[in-house]
Amino acid sequence: MTARWRGATLALFALGLLAALAGLYWSPRRAWSNLLLVEVYALGLALAGALFLCIHHLTGAGWSSGLRRVPEAMMGSLPVLALLALPLMAARPVLFPAAVHEGAPGAKALFQGAPLVFVRSGLALLAWVLLARALRRLSLRQDTHPDLATHRRLVRVSAVFVPVFALTLTLASVDWLMALAPEWTSTAFTVYVFSGLLVSGLAALTLIVIVLRARGVLSDVVRADHLHDLGKLIFTFCTFWAYIWLSQYLLIWYADLPEEIPHYARRTEAPWTVPFLVNLAVNWAIPFVVLLGREAKRSPRVLAAVCVLLLCGRWLDLYLLIMPETMGAPGLGPLELLLPLGFASLFAFLTARALAQPPLVPLGDPFLGESLRHHT
Hints:
This protein is mainly α. It has one domain (3-352). Helices cover 76% and strands 0% of the residues. The chain is built from 16 helices and no strands. The chain has helices spanning 3-26, 28-59, 69-75, 78-85, 92-95, 106-111, 114-144, 148-176, 189-214, 224-255, 261-267, 273-290, 294-298, 300-326, 334-356, 368-372. The radius of gyration is 21 Å and the shape is globular.
């Protein structure tokens, strides 16, 4: 990223923050809702990078070694995003009824009350940052110490990260999203949040790889075969997202329990009906049809277009999880445009800065040769 682009991204982030501050003054509930949305979105991209990296190490995947520095760079934004998540705790009395002991049974209100939520959220953010830093430090060490001992440490840290991630993401999805409607419960909800996080993370990772390859940076390392595998992952997990979406919807629909149906009743009635249907089309139907053929997965242009669509779809998915509980009707104004643009610019700046620091190709990775010879 050139100095001009760095300045532009930081300026856009500053503009987004100014829009948020103005929104907090004029319409606090709307501003806090949008801040929660963009923070959950950006944290999800960073965590997806860390998760992809852990899966790479734990499975001994060779094909993805050459592009490993991209998910490492994505997770490099975690410390900054974790700091920016802390002010969201001030939104609890505004957005979360259970935080002020309203609308929930005593035990549930206590569980979702501010003290325990602050502790859980702080521990989750700290665990994510520390484990991501450990992965990054060991990865950079591997460039100068290409021995199996360093590789085994990477595998061990990855083995710790995955169960910690599963537990903390479960609690965070309940504390930050499900608690918006304290009367509603769903045992599939955290898996649904995870599936959306993974799809958007894969889309961001693939889009960055395509951009780097187009600029000639990774052209000798990433070929159409690697794009094909990334396309297959996106195709698979957007279908997994749709499976969880449909499973949750059908279970709640035919059970028809009073404490569960308000969630979908609210989203399938005007004025939320159209966004509800568009969400399924953008996050599954269109990507599924487009990526069904082999050549589409190997085409940088087609794959990049699908990635952009899925990244927009993730915003819409989170919008539908948050806004029907906090706002009376959908709204699209300067705040909804500038705040996502500002956080996207911040994520791009932090990712580009991380990519510029170490060698872009992990020369000490024992599987790099397999990645360079990869053929689908």
